[in-house]
Amino acid sequence: MTEIKNRELKPVPGIEYSEIMVPDEQDLGTGTFTTELEPNAMAKINPIISSIINEPAFKLLVVINLAIESVTVLLGKADDSPPVSRTVYNLPKSLKTSDVNIFNVIFKSWEIKGLEMNGNSLEKTPAD
After folding, report:
1. pTM to 2 decimals?
2. Pure H helices in the chain
3. 70 contact partners, CB below 8 Å, separation of at least 6
4. Among 49, 50, 71, 69, which residue's Cα sits nearest to residue 116?
């Protein structure tokens, strides 16, 4: 069982780093994906999109949209097929855009299991 871990520094404006961690390379559908935003990024850039793509095997997108106070997470294959799992979470009302904010997606067996912001679990939107 070989672990996959890859960190990309400053992949796009507003993102300090993104990091994928998959404990078993034979199970790409289980792991975590972390995105750390730069201070004030959410106040300047909307939406912020953090992604990891390994064609055609894997794709994960995190769309942080302060204007509608939500984060959409999509998980699937990078072969033009629809997402295997899609979940929308509410951003907290007490969000401080001036802070460094860290988002951590937890996924298992190709299903999004949760999203944490700064170590706290975010709630799914009522429609999800």
Report:
1. 0.94
2. 41-44
3. 88, 89, 90, 91, 125
4. 71
